[in-house]
Amino acid sequence: MTTDLRLVLLGTGNPTPRAHRAGQSIAVLSDGAGAIFDLGPGSAMNLFASSIDPLAIDQLFFTHHHFDHMADFGHFVMARWDQGAGAGDALTVYGPPPLLRITEQLFGPDGVYGPDLQARTRHPLSQRIHQLRGGPMPRTLPTLVVHELDEDEVVAGDRWTVTTGPARHVQPYLNSLSYRLETPSASVVISGDTRPLPALVDFARDADVLVHMAMDLQDDIDRWPEIATSCTGAAGAARIAARANARRLVLVHLDTTADDPRRQSAMLTEARANFPGDVILGKDFLEIPVESWPHRS
After folding, report:
1. pTM for this one?
2. What is the DSSP secondary structure assignment for residue 89, as one 8-state letter?
3. DSSP letters along 24-39, please?
4. Which of 11, 107, 225, 255 is least enclosed by beta carbons within 10 angstroms?
5. Measuring CA to CA, which residue among 146, 175, 167, 149 is closest to residue 253?
């Protein structure tokens, strides 16, 4: 058994603001470097409060562009750059369209943070603080390299390979993706927001960890057709994990009802009735073991 990945849940909630659950965000780290999948509201503060070095994160992946998955995009980029003394200038960002337009509208010269960026690179106050942090002059702007992705694309790197997969949530209004991150010895699949999707079975085949949306008990999801065609409950996620022969299932994107311990117990019972592997109900700051074992046949 080998472990070469750390998986840290930075946000496990949904659009409803809660003090103890940030919006969706998952960090994956290996050998001092890492990636974050989604940056929902509050997740950047959770990152800064965690043991993770923000400068270790050099890749961002977005599953889709609902605000509860990307509201902290600006906060993370600006704080990492501002505090990084030059070491946080570069970042690579991936996700479905229109990610290029969103990034330009946030960080471009005429974007939301354009005036702030000009002030922090040109005003003597900001320049001196930057130098006191050890930053070189002249102070440079953040460099975001953006790649828009569709399904069945591969991002290959030195530490891992990330493949894009299917997700069906609120199309055609937003494009959605799932992701599979693989090293030579371990694999993690992140569903993003999706209804129970048979295509995810093959995509998540033999994954060591499947992180899957599970808003509530499946019966409560299924009571509302508009929700059931876009979201997944505990049983639906568990059935995908079982059919995929995944090793461990992590339930995230939890509704406010899942803050009740009795409902949490019911969700775990429902998931375990449909999946023979390990089931974990996500909570913010939880670190999930990523272990590669011989899989069930």
Report:
1. 0.96
2. S
3. SEEEEEETTEEEEE--
4. 225
5. 167
